[in-house]
Amino acid sequence: MRVMIVVTHLLGSGHLARALALADAFARAGWAADVVSGGRPAPHLAPGRATLHQLPPLSSAGTDFRTLLTADGRVAGPDDHAERRERLTDLLSALRPDALITELFPFGRRTLAGEFDALLEQALAMPRPPLVLSSVRDILAPPSRPGRLPETEERLRRFYDGVLVHSDPAVIPLEDSWPLTPPMRKMLLYTGFVAPSRPNLADGDEGRDEILVTAGGGPVGRVIFETAARCARAGVLPYRWRLLVPPDEVEAVGHLRALAPAQRLTIEPLRPDFRSLLGRAAASVGRCGYNTALDCLALGVPSVFCPFEDGNETEQITRARILARRPGIAMLREADLSPDRLAAALSGVLGVAVPRLNPAVLAGAARSVEIVTAMLGERRI
Q: Where is the Glycosyl transferase family 28 C-terminal domain (predicted)?
């Protein structure tokens, strides 16, 4: 059997990371797994056993998700979108998957509705249409205008067999962020959270008892990196700091290194083994995206989450508020971010035991494979 997962990450890489983890779980179960990515390449994310297909990449202009930029920085035009549609539908024809999964759409990525609709129309018209599922995280951005809700419901009714919700309703139910209608509610298939397997922390001592800082590229992460470097310079906390900077922030590294002495601060590009470093850290500082939050909870790392709130974004602050109720977790809003306040927030969580989520709750990728396999089996009966 074959699964095709279609994803476009526009700002961070969380959507792609989740799609790759899902595809790898299918591949481990004996499926042929293909991920079609329409966002910028993310070298720090490995496809595992899946095959990664790259469309001509697009990214958002900062937090303006209605303005999409090509790899060379141009505003994407009709020809760019037409090329992506053609590449996407050609891949569907070539791969002929048994299951087709669209990450976030139709609950989001409406600026790319043209290519998703073309894909779904073609899938519906195939001699053997694939099982079609949407894949969504725990928290969604609510509809921006009244018409969005019926549009989403209509696409689900016409094209989809179900919605894989990568959450646990006992922890974060989807209705906390999205106004579910009765027909939508019937389509929900909770999988648990999609998290990578726990890394082997005994492989080395690098990063042990450090404060590890990760954040997005560009202005999204720069304020956190700068505040962390200034906090390291102040020396209020007796810990070494390690900043993992995205590849597109290389130019900022010199500025950050000048903010604190080398014996207190290490700055390096984001590494494929960053989860091993995280598991050995004394504490973590970063945004509160889906994958970042799960990594911290799965590894039991004391954490200070600084949720991303630009552009009327509500996902991360909603998640951070919920998780900050747990021991060893704190939230520090960006408007309050300063070296002193960061040090105070860290002082409140350092050394606190963070309750890890039940491993069964973190097995969302494997559970997704079980759900899809069962649905295909029922279809053949």
A: 272-347
Give the count of beta carbons closer than 10 Å to the beta carbon of residue 145.
7
Q: Give the E-state strand segments of the chain in sequence order.
A: 2-7, 32-37, 51-54, 59-61, 64-69, 99-103, 131-136, 162-165, 188-190, 211-214, 241-245, 265-269, 283-286, 303-305, 329-331
Cα–Cα nearest to 331, from 299, 358, 296 = 296
For residues 212 and 313, what is the distance between their CA atoms, to the nearest angstrom?
25
172 and 138 in contact (C-beta within 8 Å)? yes
Q: Do domains 2-193+361-380 and 201-356 have the same CATH topology?
A: yes
Find the length of the chain. Answer: 381
- Torsion over CA: 101, 102, 107, 113 (sign): negative
| CATH number for the domain running over 201-356 | 3.40.50.2000
In the chain, domain spans: 2-193+361-380, 201-356
Per-residue pLDDT of the chain (381 residues; tens, 9 = 90+): 999 999 999 887 889 989 999 999 999 999 999 999 999 998 878 888 999 999 999 998 877 788 899 999 999 999 999 999 999 999 999 999 999 999 999 999 999 999 999 999 999 999 999 999 999 999 998 888 888 999 999 999 999 999 999 999 988 899 989 999 999 999 999 999 998 777 766 667 888 999 999 986 556 688 899 999 999 999 999 999 999 988 766 666 778 888 888 889 999 888 888 889 999 999 999 999 888 898 999 899 999 999 988 767 788 999 999 899 999 999 999 999 999 999 999 999 999 999 988 888 999 999 999 999 999 999 876
SS3 call for 161: coil
The CA R_g of the chain, rounded to the nearest whole Å, is 21
Residues 232 and 165: their CA atoms lie apart, in Å, by 39
Q: How far apart are CA 143 and CA 108, in angstroms?
A: 9
CATH 3.40.50.720 corresponds to the domain 2-193+361-380: no
Tokens 């998290």, residue?
195
Q: Does residue 271 sit in helix, strand or coil? A: coil
The first and second tokens of residue 229, run together, are 């470097």
Q: What is the pTM of this model?
A: 0.83
